[in-house]
Amino acid sequence: MNRQQLIAQLARPVTYDVAIIGGGATGLGVALDAAARGFSVVLVESHDFAKGTSSRATKLVHGGVRYLAQGNVALVREALHERTTLLHNAPHLAQPLPFVLPSYRYWETPFYGAGLMMYDALAGKAGLGHTEFLSRRQTLACLPTVRAEGLKGGIKYWDGQFDDARLALALARTAASRGALVVNYCAATGLRHEKGKVVGLSCQDRETGAIHQLKARCVINAAGVWVDEFRQKDGEAIGRVVRPMVAPSQGAHVVVDRDFLPGDHALMVPKTADGRVLFGVPWLGKIILGTTDTPRHDLPQEPRPFREELEFILSESARYLKKAPGRADIRSMWVGLRPLVKPQGDDGDDTKGLSREHTVLVSRSGLVTVTGGKWTTYRAMAEDVLEKCADRRLLERTRAGVTANLILIGGDGLPARPPPMSEPQGLHSYGSEAAAVAALPGARRELAAGLTEAMVRFAARSEYARTVEDVLARRSRLLFLDARLAASLARDVAAILEQENGRDSQAGAFEQLARQYLAFPG
Ligand SMILES: Cc1cc2nc3c(=O)[nH]c(=O)nc-3n(C[C@H](O)[C@H](O)[C@H](O)COP(=O)(O)OP(=O)(O)OC[C@H]3O[C@@H](n4cnc5c(N)ncnc54)[C@H](O)[C@@H]3O)c2cc1C
């Protein structure tokens, strides 16, 4: 992971089979699939891996039960299949999770129960557990702090949960172990065209400012909500007008302490006042409450929640929880931008109605753009991209399915029952790499519960971490769990990181960012 060596490789005059813009779930999934098929691969990420939407999910590995209500059976079936694959290939980072849907009206149990039975049936052998109808007493046993007044019973069903940013890292590192060159803090700045065809890209090392020219047979634009920037550049180069394809929609989350929802079951409210789903998910020692679906027209790297979104999450939670979380209880809040794909010609603002499916477009020049979809289906999306590349003869057709049983780094040889993901992070979060982490200097020095000096060293040496934010937001997840605690560790983490990397690790910028994760908008 030596940065100088990575950059030196970037400067080599080779022609890659595949060059990828964007190191989120989508780009990294393509990098791994292409590398596993034997293609030479380079991926550039302008910030850190998963700095965009891919570290800001609700952390569910799910089939998308609510898409069943929209009649989208194919989407749900694919996601259910991918759910199982992910749980199998990254058992240290993704696990089954039981959900309970409390019923306060008599019709709710049969109505939602029927849908969930269908969800089970679609999962077939990939099912994680059977849907069960619960009595009032059983519901309260699973969700002890749910409002008891008026409670009729509940329904329990199964989906999964995961650590999104660490999964992204596992994809990056597994792709690198298969020969892919993956580089963070390196922004694609332009596309290279010859005779109307895209033949590569230029990129800039954000640490030194050095520009590199990369040649590739196939360029994949996997920049999430930012894909239209490269579609525009491509259109300008070949003289075609390009209409934006992304309709960003933001989703906010609020994190509170476990005592608001103790136990190992997630709360699922299928229809909030605005018709959305609300989740209360136990995750790494805290509870995630969310999310929202609000159209947004700008594309900031660090989107801020709107006041109405937070008030909505708190007031909806208060309707279901005995002890209502208030502003002072918020440990962190974060926002992600969904890259929803709008039908061409649609400039409307109703993001709830937009498809959650992914889209792969190949332009006249051969630029392949992929966006939409969800984390759970990143692997199927990657297969689809490589299929489309073969259809357009940008790459040779190769056998699909090479990643179906490819265990990601850290996922092999684990105990049958690793600690649940509802428990705080710790050495177990590293899966089979735990011993390697524990062997580094500082393994006994805890900076905070679940974070040692050795983990920071491991982040720098093996996990591409360059800044305090990389460590405290995405290697450890403290920024997302407890922003105040994360800020208090910035200087300690910086000292270790600076020893490892020999450069400033931006502790001050992180402290400022952490304040943003706590500030309720005025
Ligand atoms: C609120 C919310 C909750 C969600 N919850 C779930 C969930 O529970 N389960 C689930 O399965 N899915 C969930 N999703 C969906 C899922 O998170 C996204 O579909 C997925 O993360 C998108 O990944 P991506 O790689 O396409 O985009 P991103 O993660 O945004 O990656 C794109 C990357 O491109 C980089 N980039 C941009 N410009 C450049 C450039 N010029 N050069 C190089 N790199 C560049 C960005 O920095 C970014 O890292 C959720 C989404 C949201 C918004």
The first-to-last residue Cα distance is 43 Å
Strand content: 15-25%
Q: How many DSSP E strands?
A: 20
Bound molecules: flavin-adenine dinucleotide
Contiguous uncertain segments of 5+ residues = 345-349
- Number of separate helices: 17
Give the overall average pLDDT.
95
The portion of residues assigned to helices is 25-40%
Radius of gyration: 22 Å
Which geometry do the CA atoms define? globular
Major sheet description: 10 strands, mixed
Classification by helices and strands: alpha+beta
Please provide a written account of the structure:
With 522 residues, the chain is an alpha+beta fold. It contains 17 helices and 20 strands. The chain has helices at residues 3-10, 25-36, 65-69, 73-89, 108-123, 136-142, 164-177, 227-238, 307-320, 378-391, 434-438, 453-462, 468-475, 478-481, 483-488, 490-501, 507-516; strands spanning 15-21, 41-44, 60-61, 94-103, 132-134, 153-162, 181-183, 186-194, 197-205, 211-221, 246-257, 266-269, 278-283, 286-290, 294-295, 332-341, 358-362, 368-372, 446-448, 451-452. Strands 3, 4, 5, 6, 11, 12, 13, 14, 15 and 16 form a ten-stranded mixed beta sheet that branches. Strands 1, 2, 7, 8, 9, 10, 17 and 18 form an eight-stranded mixed beta sheet that branches. Strands 19-20 form a two-stranded antiparallel sheet. Helix 2 runs parallel beside helix 7, helix 12 (453-462) packs across helix 16 and helix 16 runs antiparallel to helix 17. The radius of gyration is 22 Å and the shape is globular. The model is unreliable at 345-349 (pLDDT under 50). Bound molecules: flavin-adenine dinucleotide. Residues 21-27, 44-47, 51-54, 56-60, 62, 187-188, 222-224, 226, 251, 291, 336-339, 371, 373-376 line the site of flavin-adenine dinucleotide.
